[in-house]
Amino acid sequence: MKNLPTLRQLRYLVTVSETRHFGRAAEICAVTQSTLSAGVQELEGLLGTRLIERRSRRQVVFTPLGEEIVERARAVLADAEALVDAAQAGSLPLVGDLHLGVIPTIGPYVLPRLVPALREAYGGLRLFLREEQSANLLSLLNAGRIDAALMALPYAVGDLPRVELATEEVVLAMPENHPLAAFDDIAVEKLESETMLMLEDGHCLREHAMEACHLTRSRGNEAFQATSLSTLVQMVAGGVGVTLMPSIAVPVEARPGSGVVVRPITGARAARTLALLWRPASPRSRDYRLLADAIGTAITGALSDAGRQLAGQRKEAKEA
């Protein structure tokens, strides 16, 4: 029988690959640096080949074979975790560790409602959260580094299992003293004459908003690109321009006192559908559907608050 690497040795190797630093890898693995280094050396001895070129304490370079072994190690670790997940899934719902990825234009508006509810309903669940743009989330999901991803569709996600949670409209956010704030609804054609502030490339909301409102990349009036929706809103409040916002963000970003008001856009299609996705081979599909129920409740609450807030802003505009 062949001598096989231990899961601990494989974990050490993968963590060094992710950090490119023995010291940081040791901290993540909760061991001393000498223990981690010895574990990697034992793995190299077992395999009979050098995986890492130790050029200096600060420079860690993997050999080509080392990079291949890292990918195989990730797959082995993912299978081992799936084995544990399968055992847990057969007992109590939503127990143990669960790594959830979420895009930045959903996380701030859903997680503060979701996390306390999950803690109360599922005391045995340990939820780990990671915020990334859609492309990175899919890579992490397919590599087994997160268990599920909360994203916005349409997006090229292949045949991943999913639960579609809600479809929301894009609304126009503008300074509270903007001339368009006097209207109940804003025709999409009126956006052509406005200074538009948008998220930078890579954010799926940018693509959804542009498609929904029939905008093109060649717009001459796109004056600013930001890395976050909150930054855009601050620019809007400062009178720099207007932006497009998902309804789910309204209770936070256009709250009273923010200096920003929102209005629906007529002639535009609903921008995006929020969905929870996971890997086809995962044994925890029951857990993910329970998680989807909890997320759906949080989203419904945010959208209900958004509707009330929009109605209140319209009423104030008529009374002014």
UniProtKB/TrEMBL annotation:
Keywords linked to the UniProt accession: Activator, DNA-binding, Transcription, Transcription regulation
Signal peptide location: none
Cross-referenced Gene3D superfamilies: Periplasmic binding protein-like II, Winged helix-like DNA-binding domain superfamily/Winged helix DNA-binding domain
Keyword DNA-binding attributed: yes
Cross-referenced Pfam families: HTH_1 (PF00126), LysR_substrate (PF03466)
HTH lysR-type domain mapped to chain residues: 5-63
Keyword Phosphoprotein among record annotations: no
Organism domain of life: Bacteria
Any single GO CC term annotated in Swiss-Prot or TrEMBL for this entry: protein-DNA complex
Example GO molecular function: DNA-binding transcription factor activity
Family classification: Belongs to the LysR transcriptional regulatory family.
PANTHER family assigned to the protein according to its UniProt record, in alphabetical order: HYDROGEN PEROXIDE-INDUCIBLE GENES ACTIVATOR, TRANSCRIPTIONAL DUAL REGULATOR HCAR-RELATED
Name this polypeptide is given: Transcriptional regulator, LysR family
Organism: Rhodospirillum rubrum (strain ATCC 11170 / ATH 1.1.1 / DSM 467 / LMG 4362 / NCIMB 8255 / S1)
Organism classification: Bacteria, Pseudomonadati, Pseudomonadota, Alphaproteobacteria, Rhodospirillales
